[in-house]
Every structure is written in structure tokens, then in C-alpha cells.
Design a protein that fits this description.
Helices cover 47% and strands 23% of the residues. The chain is α+β, with helices and mostly antiparallel strands. It folds into five domains: 75 residues; 106 residues, Beta-Lactamase (2-Layer Sandwich); 110 residues, PAS domain (Beta-Lactamase), CATH 3.30.450.20; 168 residues, 2-Layer Sandwich (Heat Shock Protein 90), CATH 3.30.565.10; 117 residues, Response regulator (Rossmann fold). About 2% of the residues have low confidence.
């Protein structure tokens, strides 16, 4: 019981008790008129107070209920505000609307201004007058739940037709019949269903078109159900039955056996393995998406080629394989012709490349062999006591020979690059040592006292990098040589800096000179392959830039140039290198790189056999070996070498030239190794400077490799390795 009800009950009880007491115990006859009057007035006042209190309580209760109903109504309307459903309550007895949510405008698609003067019941009555809805309501028993089908509703206040759906739930309360009515907007649902119907129709049309295309493009269709192991083979064109007549049945080994007679024996195994149940199931398990095609020839006519393409699909949960087959005889013949032409072209290209490599090898040997004599003899003479005038002449000869060797190596480098022979040789290297050695090499080449060489290296560069520092050095030396040729006074600066990007360094190195400069149009020709003119009087100078450009491309780097007449030029290369040690190099001027001294050792008692068909080269080798005090024997043919060894002549080392008439170095070595007692180390002595030849000679069985012109440091390493 609520507080208000309790209060009313207590007051009523008090009032009744008061009346009983007054009536039973008060004697109005013996009481004075004034007192009687007071008591009556008191009772009337008390009754009036009771009525007032009762009214206040009733009013308060009704007010609270109204507030609660308004709150609930507001809450419910806020919940359904964005809903596509109108909620109503209808009294069947009084034929009036008891309740309706406030979202009618949103559901029916009306604006407030358009619907402000139209009673809501009018709109609802129009909806219920719809013929489609009335035909459904006429059959309703008004006792069970009613759900209508979608029906169209069009109000003149807006252009678009909306599709509505009605739900009615009847219930009784205190013998009064009510309907709870839900009116919802089903336009989206209708549009989606209409779209699905349209798409289904479109899919059927596309499927029909696809079937027509398939029938025109393919000759045979085989459908295999991997679940039921059933197949259907259908010939899509009349009078075309490459694999027999149309048929259906169980897909097993018998199917493949039955069509074996139609497929060429060489191709049947490939065909049966591809279309076996095991392989098709495996493809499904791997979720293969791409179609798989196989080509095979027919048994009766090997000139007829078929191509079968396998498609994997799933239909109603069952795994299906569709195999479409067509005649590709013309394509196969075309491909065979093209393959034959391609193989022929590749063979010719291979022969041409091999011939070019052999030519380069011969050129390298023929040119570098006399250079070996000139450089070797001049260096040998310089180590002896000679007059100052003679020394100056010999130094000039030696310097010119080395310059000529650089030009020859440049020509060979161009050929090696264009032949694809030149490869990257990446390794770890010390950055301070790299720049110090580059500085020392460059300084030796500057003969003009008016030109100074400067080194400006960023202190923040990493200490160790990984890359082909040999080719970077060669590029920079080419650029420095050009700078020396065109700079009569001033400075040549080697400047380097870089930007670190994760574990890599974008290394930038510039060669800056204060020389005569290069005209813009000639600078473009020097750096651009297409614009280079071979009859340019400065082509030899430009060749170094051309080689540098090719090498920087091989390194995936860039080279740029800037120049002003009478002011100088700046050539900059940028190349990416991997960082091995991030520690900064610091001030490079404080770093000392000790040059290894090449000191001979006493190998008295050791015997070396030198085999070379060029007597001048034999003389050079003898002079270079003289400081080691070894006993040398010189011969000019491979056969003489074989005869000496077979006559039990003993040597501690053999220097064997490769390019010799009759028996070359490789053939001579093989003859020597036929003698089971032969164990002397054999070093190939060759002027072949092509990349990869060292590995070739080592694979042929030589113990080591020494190139011409003979590098004194390399010779010293080999003698230490095999004699010391």
C-alpha cells in the first residue's frame, strides 16, 4: 500500500471514531446552545479539512502518475525517434487511438511543415484503406497475430512511393479489446529484394552468354563432381569428338583408361597425372585459384594439339572440377617455330658473346704482354745505380707506360662492361684507409708543383662500409686524372659526405678542380652515351668519364657534373653502401695509414722454372726474382717443361705462361699431372685480365694466378706462400 493510501485510511478512521464518540457520549440536550454550536462547527470544519486533505492526496497521486506517463512517453519516443517503425495502441470498443509514437513524419518521409495541419489519424486511415492491405485484413480473425506482406503506399505530399509493412498484436485488458499496431518502412527491404532479383536475372543472362562463349571457344567440356565421383563429358560442337562420344558415369581410373587411346603415348602420363582424383583433390586442398592448363597431342594425328584448362569451383557445398578443352594446333605450331627461332638466336648470341670474350682475352694478352716487359724492365733498372739523366728518362718511360696501361685497361673495361663480363665484387672496407690510399695514389700522379691536392672528408662518416670499393676507387681515379689534365694551377679537392638511412649510407664523393672548365655542350657529350661523338678531339679524356658512367650504373649510383669556363669543374658520384661500423671516422688528417713495405726475403737454394714463349718476359721475370736469390731456369715451350719434369728435374715452383703456341698453359698442366709423382705448385702467368679468369684457371688445376704486368706485391705474396 502506498503512503497516500495509508494516510487517507488513517484520517478516515480518526474521523469515524470522532463522530462515534461525539454521538454516543455527548449530551446535546443538557448542553448549552453555544457549546453545541461549537461542537457542530468543529465537526463541520474537521470534515472540510478531511475533504481538502483527501483532494490534495488524490491530486498529488494523479500528478505523479501523469509525470511518470509523460516521462515514459518521452523516453519511448526518444528510443524510437530514429526507428523505421510507428507504434500505436487502438481501442476496439471506443474506436479511438489510445497512443502513438511521434516518429510518423520520419517513417513516412514527410517534413514537419508538410504534415503540420494534417491529423495523424487521416494518414493512418489512408494507409489502412490500401487495397493490398485491406485484402489481407479481410481474412484476419482479429484474434491471432497479423503480419502483412509489403504493400506500396504513396502520399501526394511526396514524390516517392514507399513500401510499408503492418504488424498487429491483439490483447484484452479488463474486458476491453485493444490492438498494438506496428507500421514499419520496408522500402530498403523491398529495394534489396528487387536488386537481388535483378542480379539473379543478370547472373542468368551472363551465365547464358558465358555458356555461348564457352561453346564457341572450346570443343569439349568435362564436369567432375569430387564428392560423388561422377563425371559428364560433353562435346560442345558437332562432328568434334577428340576424346570420344559424349558420355557420363563414375570418374575413376577406367575413365582415364578409356580415353588413353585418343592421347599420344608421350603425353598420356602427364595428362593422367594432372587429371587424377588424387591430384584434383590436392589442388582443392591447396586452395588453388589460378586455372591449370596442359597441352598434349592426339594419338592418331600427332599434328593435332589440344589444350585442357582445369577450373575448380564449389556448387552447393560440393567440389566440382570443370575441364575445358580446345584445339590449339595453330598456336602450338607457332610456339614451336618461335621457340626454335629463339633457341637459334640464343645460341648465336652465346657464340657471339663467347667469341667476344675470347677476343678480349687475346687482346688483353697481346697488349699487356709487351707492357709487362716495358714496365718490369724500367722498374728493375730504377732499382739499380744509374745516372740522374738516365733515371729521369727511365722514370718518364715508366710513367708513360703506366699511363698507357691505364688507357688499355680503360678500353678493356668498356668492352667488359658492354659484354656483361664486369661484375660487382663487394666486400668490407675501412673508410679512412680508402680515402688515404686514394689521396696517396692521386698525389703521385700530380707532377705540376702549382697544383695542390686537398682532402675534405666529413668527420661523421662511418668507419667501415660494405660495397665494391675497387670500382668506386677506379671511378674516382678516372675523375681525378681528368682533373689533373685540365688543371694547371690551383687545387684539386676530394670531398666526401653522406646521409645515413637505417643501416645504409648514401655516400657522396666530389672531385673539385680549379682548372680550365668544360663547355656545356661538350660536357653533355662526355656524360651522355647518345651524344658522344667518337671523332671528338677530347675523346680520350672523355673515355674516363664514359667508363665512370658505365661503372656507376653497375653500382646503381649516379654521377653529376658542373663546370664553368676558367673557373673549374665539379664531378660528384653518389652510391649506396651498407654500414658495418657506425663509429664516426673523426678527423682524417690525424689518421695515419701505413703503407706496407715490399721486402724481399732470401730464398737461396730454391729453384723456380719459368715457362714463357716471349724471351723479353723471361728476362723481366728473372730480374724481378733476382732479389730473392733463387735459382731460375727459363724455357720457351710447354713441351720443354714436360720433358724436364719427366726427366726428374726438381723445382720448388713453376711460373707457367698460358698463351703459348702448340701447348698452352692449361694443356701443359694436364700433361704434367699425368705424372703421378708430380707435386710441384704451378702458378699461371697470364696477361689475360678479364674478370673471372682467375677462378677459371684455379678450376683447371693451377695453384695460383699471377697477371701481367707482374705486380711486385702480388709476386712477393706468392713467393712467401710457396717458398718461405
Amino acid at each position: 500500500m502506498s503512503k497516500s493510501n495509508k494516510t487517507m485510511t488513517i484520517l478516515l478512521i480518526i474521523m469515524i471514531i470522532t463522530v462515534i464518540i461525539v454521538y454516543n457520549y455527548v449530551d446535546f440536550n443538557n448542553m448549552s446552545a453555544e457549546l453545541s454550536q461549537i461542537i457542530i462547527v468543529g465537526c463541520v470544519v474537521a470534515f472540510i479539512l478531511f475533504l481538502i486533505t483527501f483532494y490534495i492526496i488524490i491530486y498529488s497521486r494523479n500528478n505523479e502518475k501523469n509525470k511518470e506517463l509523460r516521462h515514459r512517453d518521452k523516453l519511448f519516443n526518444s528510443l524510437v525517434k530514429n526507428s523505421d517503425t510507428i507504434y500505436l495502441m487502438y481501442n476496439n470498443k471506443s474506436r479511438e487511438l489510445v497512443y502513438m509514437t511521434h516518429n510518423i513524419n520520419e517513417v513516412l518521409g514527410l517534413k514537419e511543415s508538410e504534415n503540420s495541419n494534417v491529423p495523424e489519424l487521416d494518414i493512418l486511415s489512408e494507409i489502412f484503406k490500401s487495397e493490398a492491405l485491406r485484402s489481407q485484413l479481410d481474412n484476419w480473425d482479429e484474434q491471432s497475430e497479423f503480419i502483412s506482406q509489403m504493400f506500396s503506399y504513396h502520399d501526394p505530399r511526396y514524390q516517392h512511393t514507399r513500401w510499408m509493412k503492418i504488424k498487429i498484436y491483439p490483447f484484452l485488458e479488463k474486458k476491453v479489446s485493444y490492438f498494438v499496431i506496428l507500421i514499419s518502412d520496408a522500402t530498403k527491404e523491398h529495394d534489396n529484394q528487387h536488386l537481388l532479383v535483378s542480379q539473379a536475372s543478370d547472373i542468368k543472362n551472363r551465365e547464358r552468354q558465358l555458356n555461348q562463349i564457352t561453346n564457341l571457344s572450346y570443343d569439349i567440356e568435362i564436369d567432375i563432381n569430387l564428392e560423388t565421383k561422377e563425371y559428364i563429358l560433353k562435346n560442345l560442337k558437332e562432328d568434334v569428338n577428340y576424346l570420344g562420344q559424349s558420355k557420363k558415369g563414375l570418374y575413376d581410373d577406367n575413365f582415364l583408361e578409356n580415353i588413353k587411346e585418343y592421347i599420344a603415348d608421350n603425353d598420356y602420363e602427364k595428362f593422367s597425372n594432372t587429371l587424377s582424383i588424387e591430384n584434383l583433390s590436392k589442388l582443392f586442398a591447396e586452395k588453388s585459384i589460378e586455372p591449370i592448363s596442359i597441352r598434349y597431342a592426339l594419338n592418331k594425328n600427332n599434328d593435332t594439339w589440344l589444350e585442357s584448362t582445369i577450373f575448380l569451383t564449389t556448387n552447393k557445398g560440393e567440389k566440382h572440377v570443370t575441364v575445358l578443352t580446345k584445339n590449339v594446333t595453330e598456336n602450338a605450331e607457332y610456339m614451336r617455330t618461335q621457340n626454335a627461332m629463339l633457341q637459334s638466336a640464343l645460341s648465336e648470341a652465346k657464340k657471339a658473346n663467347q667469341a667476344k670474350s675470347e677476343f678480349l682475352s687475346i687482346m688483353s694478352h697481346e697488349i699487356r704482354t709487351p707492357m709487362n716487359a716495358i714496365i718490369g724492365l724500367s722498374e728493375s733498372i730504377l732499382s739499380e745505380e744509374i745516372s740522374e739523366n738516365a733515371r729521369e728518362d727511365i722514370e718518364n718511360i715508366n710513367s708513360a707506360s703506366n699511363n698507357l696501361l691505364d688507357v688499355i685497361d680503360g678500353i678493356l673495361d668498356i668492352s667488359k662492361i658492354e659484354s656483361g663480363i664486369l661484375k660487382l665484387e663487394e666486400k668490407e672496407y675501412q673508410v679512412p684507409k680508402f680515402f688515404k690510399e686514394l689521396y696517396n695514389l692521386s698525389k703521385q700522379r700530380i707532377t705540376d708543383n702549382n697544383v695542390k691536392l686537398k682532402l675534405e672528408i666529413d668527420k661523421k662518416l662511418p668507419t667501415r662500409l660494405f660495397g665494391d670499393n675497387g670500382k668506386i676507387r677506379q671511378i674516382l681515379l678516372n675523375l681525378i686524372n681528368n682533373a689533373i689534365k685540365f688543371t694547371n694551377n690551383g687545387t684539386i679537392t676530394i670531398k666526401a659526405d653522406g646521409k645515413i638511412n637505417n643501416s645504409k649510407l648514401n655516400l657522396s664523393i666530389s672531385i673539385i678542380d680549379t682548372g680550365i672548365g668544360i663547355e656545356k655542350n661538350r660536357l653533355e657529350r662526355l656524360l651522355d652515351d647518345d651524344k658522344k661523338a667518337t671523332n671528338d678531339k677530347n675523346y680520350v679524356e672523355g673515355m674516363g668519364l664514359y667508363i665512370s658512367k658505365k661503372m656507376i650504373d653497375l653500382l646503381n649510383g649516379t654521377i653529376t657534373a658542373e663546370s664553368k669556363i676558367h673557373e673549374g669543374s665539379t664531378f660528384t658520384i653518389t652510391v649506396e653502401q651498407k654500414i658495418i661500423d657506425e663509429k664516426p671516422i673523426g678527423d682524417i688528417d690525424t689518421i695515419k695509414v701505413q703503407k706496407k713495405k715490399i721486402s724481399s726475403f732470401n730464398a737461396n737454394g730454391k729453384k723456380i722454372l719459368i715457362v714463357d714463349d716471349n724471351r723479353l718476359n723471361l728476362k723481366v721475370a728473372e730480374k724481378l726474382l733476382k732479389p730473392y736469390e733463387v735459382a731460375t731456369t727459363c724455357i720457351t715451350t710447354g713441351q720443354e717443361c714436360i720433358d724436364l719434369i719427366n726427366n726428374n728435374e726438381k723445382f720448388d715452383l713453376i711460373l707457367l705462361d698460358q698463351m703459348m703456341p702448340e701447348l698452352d698453359g692449361i694443356k701443359t698442366l694436364k700433361k704434367l699431372k699425368e705424372n703421378k709423382e708430380f707435386s710441384t705448385p704451378v702458378i699461371v702467368l697470364t696477361a689475360d685480365a678479364i674478370v673471372g679468369v682467375k677462378e677459371k684457371y684455379l678450376n683447371e688445376g693451377f695453384n695460383d694466378y699471377l697477371s701481367k704486368p707482374i705486380d711486385v706485391e702480388e709476386l712477393n705474396k706468392i713467393l712467401k706462400k710457396y717458398l718461405q
